[in-house]
């Protein structure tokens, strides 16, 4: 990205190794990002420029091994969940309290889209909520990582939307319909964003501000989340961690337009499709 222009460096993908079945459990582009970037730098001077407005942005990670999610990771969101009983369903009647008591959860990879898609709501009679979150992408294999080393495992950052159907079912089930995991607008690589701990983030619905906070208010900050997750399972290149949503979650309906922004990453506008998914 250069302003409102994109340099077409598609040919850099030619450095990726080819694989036959069984395929690796990581994202090929992220696992080979250093080599891809070296090739990008060679291609850049002569790469064709195209207008950002002329393309449809897809997810900056095509094949994450898993999409890890932090629940109740801003105290003000914990507090609002005590006031709104729709937010308390599906957790067995346990009071929402502290992330360290709840662990992390997964969204289905098949839910993932870029911000150039439309969000297709399911289940017209159910409440469907927006959740804006800082998303990070793991850059190298991480197992039992200590928090002081954690930032060195990050390939980059994006804006994440953790769209959610409210109700009594298991959380992963309600958060995994197609298009309910959004990554966009692009990947900001870790060399360009050294401190994920002080980023303002916000989300509007039809220009009405709904969520506004800062990642310094995370209960488990980015290094702690990597330490916590990697103490339970191996994180692979391309794995995504959605770090949790601040207060202000609320319903969206077909035809709404979402606007999400995170400082030093970017912003995007995204439509909720006019029709519910069949
Ligand atoms: Mn969430």
What's the gist of this structure?
With 278 residues, the protein is α+β, with helices and mostly antiparallel strands. The protein is built from 6 helices and 16 strands.
- Bound heterogens, unique: manganese (II) ion
Tell me the helix content: 10-25%
**Number of helical segments?**
6
Strand order of the largest sheet: 4-3-13-7-8-10-5
Principal-axes shape call: globular
> How many E strands?
16
Largest sheet: 7 strands, mixed
Determine Rg (CA atoms, Å). Answer: 18 Å
Quote the beta fraction.
25-35%
Low-confidence stretches: none
Tell me the span between the first and last alpha carbons.
Answer: 36 Å
Mean pLDDT: 95
Structural class: alpha+beta
Provide the succession of SSEs: EHHEEHHEEEEEEHEEEHEEEE
Explained architecture:
The chain has 278 residues and is an alpha+beta fold. 15% of the residues lie in helices and 27% in strands. It has 6 helices and 16 strands. It has helices at residues 28-31, 33-43, 75-83, 99-102, 171-174, 222-230; strands at residues 5-7, 49-51, 67-69, 105-107, 112-114, 128-130, 132-138, 154-162, 164-165, 181-189, 200-205, 208-214, 240-242, 250-251, 257-262, 266-271. The strands form 4 sheets. The protein has a 7-stranded mixed beta sheet. A 4-stranded antiparallel beta sheet has the order 12-11-15-16, with no helix packed on it. A 3-stranded antiparallel beta sheet has the order 9-6-14, with no helix packed on it. The longest helix has 11 residues, at 33-43. It is globular and about 55 Å long. The mean pLDDT is 95. Bound molecules: manganese (II) ion.
